[in-house]
Amino acid sequence: MKPNVLVIAGHDPSGGAGIHADIEAIHSLGGFAATLITGLTVQNSSNVQGFELVSEQLLQRQAEALLADMRFDAVKIGMTGSPGIIHFIADLLDRLPGVPVVLDPVLAAEAGGRLAADSVPDAMLRELLPRATLATPNLPEAQKLAGNEDLATCGTALCNAGCPAVLITGTHDDTPQVRNHLYTATGAQQWAWPRLPGSYHGSGCTLASACAALLAAGQPLEQAVEQAQAYVHQALRHAWQAGQGQLIPDRRRHD
Amino acid sequence: MKPNVLVIAGHDPSGGAGIHADIEAIHSLGGFAATLITGLTVQNSSNVQGFELVSEQLLQRQAEALLADMRFDAVKIGMTGSPGIIHFIADLLDRLPGVPVVLDPVLAAEAGGRLAADSVPDAMLRELLPRATLATPNLPEAQKLAGNEDLATCGTALCNAGCPAVLITGTHDDTPQVRNHLYTATGAQQWAWPRLPGSYHGSGCTLASACAALLAAGQPLEQAVEQAQAYVHQALRHAWQAGQGQLIPDRRRHD
Question: Which residues lie below 8 Å from residue A100, measured CB to CB, with a gap of 6+?
């Protein structure tokens, strides 16, 4: 048996991000991914050119087929795209009580292309943060969600929105090291990783899915968060150039 | 660097078949998968309940983004769904001269649920078989495409349709062993594998993607076909019950 992870996220045809990243990371960490695709994007390793959302009716039919068949040990949420899909996800989470939920609040691609309507942050704060076990925003996403520039204020605000643990990643910061900060009710802790040269496609998806796979396997939260970061760091160290744009993390196990 | 495989196939939310199987198999065999999703299916480990095809306009935009960015070392085609999408794929293949193409002529799911319009076999024969390097139908698919019940006649007919190598798999037969037959212009050869108990979700997708990954890595055709079968046999041997229906092949490397 392997732990089942329900992934709710977008599809990136170029294979760097979205459910490709999720499937590869969960597969490499010993789990099994089922996926509900919220949005079909047009993108390559350079950037996102557009997207079409999947209808909530189709998502609902797919979700019913999955829930009738499988038990899930964790949920990973990536691109949501619209308040309507966020509402569908919130209802679905209410049918999975006790299952850890990792929320990667995707608002844009690593290279900046938009992946969500303007009304998404409000719906996410109201409907998803209170249902998540762990949120993994990067600093710009945390600032947008919290409406504040200050890192610690963002961490506290997102915890106060109802999410017990918030990992704010420092990839988009300009510090010499990448500093990731975990905020919980009992305080904050941080990890520092060497900042690698270059730009990576799908590192945020990979991190959130790694956290979900490790929580699904029964790891305690802080241990899962630490091991997921180590896994992503290795994937970035082994990244390669599949296209002409950003590097692609190599999500096989390297340890 | 890893070889890039362009996958054109359906999406199975339950993770057993479709692009999940493709991504996992290609990832495990050292390649990298980019994917164009032709159809979003409603299914679980028991069967297919329905599907919605993706518009050719969106597929075209996605294909342009990929071709502008990446070079491909092989193409794998799975679910096509409609003559319109088959025509789109044929045009796309004409823009990738010299790239090996593996065609898994998906007409139905392993458990029998339909995945293609009635007009698909004709369009496949006319537009895809002549552009493929290797086709991997199971026996019912080969019989439907060739309009004949006899195995060897099917093999010859599909080669005559313009495909230089046709591997007809015997999973759906009732022989004590699973006998897979490869037909080429120079003759036929066969492999026999122990027939494993139980029913498997996504074994056909896994086989075709394994062939594509090995061809992308530069293996000669017969060697790729043999090694892909051995890989799938191991994946089936390690299959497990993710839901309540068919077993899921474990697509990690087991050697």
Answer: A73, A74, A75, A133, A134, A212, A215, A216
